Amino acid sequence: MIVGLTGGIASGKSTAVELFSKLDTPFVDADVVAREVVEPGTPALGSIVNRFGEQILTSEGHLNRAALREIIFSDTSHKHWLEQLLHPLIRESMLSQLEAFNAPYVLLVAPLLFENKLETLCAKTVTLDIPEHIQLERACNRDGSSEATIQSIITSQIPRKDRLEKADFILDNSRDEAYLATQVTALHHLLLLQAQL
């Protein structure tokens, strides 16, 4: 059983994944997979270099994400081309990694679970939820970014109300880690039961 885990920026996805991992729950992280498909030597990175030139590589031959971001956000046709190239590769890699696990359920961790329609791969979905003012505060403290930058990221993500409506389960991360751990443990046992049905 695949269970999607999502939440806005600084909602505590990493902490929740850590707590699930302590309960022996395997997971696949969509952000990690997205980096893996463009590692040096991969066909996808070769295609990106062919289209945009060597300037989108770092001196070590890795993808320079900041340089690529500048290009694709200045021209929607470039963004569309890149999505057409990468999305199928990311989806295929995620699915093969998810299928490799032998467990009652496995987490698919994806910040843009609903935005990228990845919930279609999942039997259940879980959203980490915190009020926006806490989200802003945590993200600014964690990333050292300005409030305006964090606010623009929050705005670009699915609205909190929509994320809550779409989720099968909600984890409230507005308090401390112990509070979140209690909820994760309870949800873990519920998911184990559902996986047996």
From TrEMBL:
<feature type="binding site">
    <location>
        <begin position="10"/>
        <end position="15"/>
    </location>
    <ligand>
        <name>ATP</name>
    </ligand>
</feature>
<keyword id="KW-0173">Coenzyme A biosynthesis</keyword>
<dbReference type="InterPro" id="IPR001977">
    <property type="entry name" value="Depp_CoAkinase"/>
</dbReference>
<comment type="pathway">
    <text>Cofactor biosynthesis; coenzyme A biosynthesis; CoA from (R)-pantothenate: step 5/5.</text>
</comment>
<protein>
    <recommendedName>
        <fullName>Dephospho-CoA kinase</fullName>
        <ecNumber>2.7.1.24</ecNumber>
    </recommendedName>
</protein>
<keyword id="KW-0963">Cytoplasm</keyword>
<dbReference type="InterPro" id="IPR027417">
    <property type="entry name" value="P-loop_NTPase"/>
</dbReference>
<keyword id="KW-0067">ATP-binding</keyword>
<comment type="function">
    <text>Catalyzes the phosphorylation of the 3'-hydroxyl group of dephosphocoenzyme A to form coenzyme A.</text>
</comment>
<dbReference type="GO" id="GO:0004140">
    <property type="term" value="F:dephospho-CoA kinase activity"/>
</dbReference>
<keyword id="KW-0547">Nucleotide-binding</keyword>
<dbReference type="Pfam" id="PF01121">
    <property type="entry name" value="CoaE"/>
</dbReference>
<keyword id="KW-0808">Transferase</keyword>
<keyword id="KW-0418">Kinase</keyword>
<comment type="similarity">
    <text>Belongs to the CoaE family.</text>
</comment>
